[in-house]
Structure formats: structure tokens, C-alpha cells
């Protein structure tokens, strides 16, 4: 048997480690009621799961294989793609289902938008949230009552969700979701545009869908005729 000689011009195979922040969904019985709550969350914040890696934790359920197949299909119908499954007996896993996972480290609870309180009088003026510190990887900032201003950076793996607009006076490398309370006039501004995802009023674009010509620039993100538009800002 002859062996081909290695091609010195071909680079060797390289393996790299990379960490991503994932959201864990843990359904509770009855599953139909839990799915109804998930639908309510989707109406309040349509872009909440946009581009978000999701792990399904089944430790609180007792399922047979067909139950799991139906649950994964129900989530896929809601545009929630499951990357892996925790807490499932091996007997109910099968080809075509997400793979089993273990060994994840908890990173705390992720807040979700609450139900708006009914109001008879006119609502109070929107309140702004100003963050003097950067938003670090793994952090999620949720403020549905108005704008969010970040005086520093939004790191990769971090997330800012605002009912109004988002102002980032540093690099935007994580996720920015503006207009999450149903405000198509909301905008996103940042001094250095390197996001994982941007969204306004439920419409979103991931990094792969964004024009690379704007990367690293000062950028405004807005909605124009139900489409996300990027505009380069002049540096002062």
C-alpha cells in the first residue's frame, strides 16, 4: 500500500475552542399551557429568540419518544431551533432529534418581558436607562420602558433589549434588540458596529446577513418600509 505524501502547501487541520451563551428552555407540565405562555412571550417580544442558541432541558417532564418529537416540532414551528437536549432518558432519543448534551455551567436567569399592566389614565413618559459600565459577555439587560444608553461597549455574548432605542457609545459586539415593546420608530446607534444580531420591532438581522462594509464603523440602524437599513454616521 502506498501513502500519499503530505502537501506542504496545504495547511494542517486546526481545532479551535469557542464558547457561546445559550438559553435553556425547561418546559413544565402541562406542556400545552407552557407553550401558550411561550406564545405570549413571543407576542410581547417577537425577537426574543432571534438568533439565540437554545438548549431544551427535559428534567421536569416525563415523556415518551413521540412526545419529544412533537415538542421539538412545536418549537420549530415557533422559529426556536433546539441545539441540544439535557435531562432526557437515552431511550427516548432517536436519529433526527437534537443531540444529548451535558456539562453546561449555569449562568443565571434570563429575564423575560412581563405582561404590560392595564392603564386607564395616559401612560407616563418613557423612562431611559443609562448604564455607566460596559455590558459584559453573558449579561442581559432588559428595559421595556424606554431607551437604553450604554456608555461603554456591549461585549460579544451580551444582550441589550429596549422598548425604545439603543445608544452604544462604544463597540457593539453582542445583540441589540430595540423597539421590543412594539415601536417601529426605535433605532440603534453605536460607535463601532460589530454585532452578533440587531433587531427593531421584531425584525432582525444576524451578523451573516449584515453588509460587511459597515463593520467597524459608526452606524445607525433603523426600519425603512419593514426592512432593516444601516446608515454610516460621520465621526466627529
Q: What's the short story on this structure?
A:
The protein is an alpha/beta fold and 236 residues long. The chain has helices spanning 31-44, 65-77, and strands spanning 23-25, 54-57, 82-86, 129-131, 140-143, 148-150, 159-162, 166-172, 175-178, 188-193, 197-200, 203-206, 219-223, 228-232.
Would you mind describing this structure in some detail?
It comes from Methylobacterium trifolii. Pfam families: MinC_C, MinC_N. This is Probable septum site-determining protein MinC. Interacts with MinD and FtsZ. Keywords: Cell cycle, Cell division, Septation. The protein is of the alpha/beta class and 236 residues long. It folds into 2 domains: 70 residues; 104 residues, 3 Solenoid (Pectate Lyase C-like), CATH 2.160.20. 11% of the residues lie in helices and 26% in strands. The protein contains 2 helices and 14 strands, in the order βαβαββββββββββββ. The strands form 3 sheets. It has a 6-stranded mixed β-sheet with strand order 4-6-8-10-13-14, with no helix packed on it. The protein has a 5-stranded mixed β-sheet with strand order 5-7-9-11-12, with no helix packed on it. Strand 2, helix 2 and strand 3 form a beta-alpha-beta unit. It is globular. It starts with 22 loop residues before the first strand and ends with a strand. About 4% of the residues have low confidence.
Amino acid at each position: 500500500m502506498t501513502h500519499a505524501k503530505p502537501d506542504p502547501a496545504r495547511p494542517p487541520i486546526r481545532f479551535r475552542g469557542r464558547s457561546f451563551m445559550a438559553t435553556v428552555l425547561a418546559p413544565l407540565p402541562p406542556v400545552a399551557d407552557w407553550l401558550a405562555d411561550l406564545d405570549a412571550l413571543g407576542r410581547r417580544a417577537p425577537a426574543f429568540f432571534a438568533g439565540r442558541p437554545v438548549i431544551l432541558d427535559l428534567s421536569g417532564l416525563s415523556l415518551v419518544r413521540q412526545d419529544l418529537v412533537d415538542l421539538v416540532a412545536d418549537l420549530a414551528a415557533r422559529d426556536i431551533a433546539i441545539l441540544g437536549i439535557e435531562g432526557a432518558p437515552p431511550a427516548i432519543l432517536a436519529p433526527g432529534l437534537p443531540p444529548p448534551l451535558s456539562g453546561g455551567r449555569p449562568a443565571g436567569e434570563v429575564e423575560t418581558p412581563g405582561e404590560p399592566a392595564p392603564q386607564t389614565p395616559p401612560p407616563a413618559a418613557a423612562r431611559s436607562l443609562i448604564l455607566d459600565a460596559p455590558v459584559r459577555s453573558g449579561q442581559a439587560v432588559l428595559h421595556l420602558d424606554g431607551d437604553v444608553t450604554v456608555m461603554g461597549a456591549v461585549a460579544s455574548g451580551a444582550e441589550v433589549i429596549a422598548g425604545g432605542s439603543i445608544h452604544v457609545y462604544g463597540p457593539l459586539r453582542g445583540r441589540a434588540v430595540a423597539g421590543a415593546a412594539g415601536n417601529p420608530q426605535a433605532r440603534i446607534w453605536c460607535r463601532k458596529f460589530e454585532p452578533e444580531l440587531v433587531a427593531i420591532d421584531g425584525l432582525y438581522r444576524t451578523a451573516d446577513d449584515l453588509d460587511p462594509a459597515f463593520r467597524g464603523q459608526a452606524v445607525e440602524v433603523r426600519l425603512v418600509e419593514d426592512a432593516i437599513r444601516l446608515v454610516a454616521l460621520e465621526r466627529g
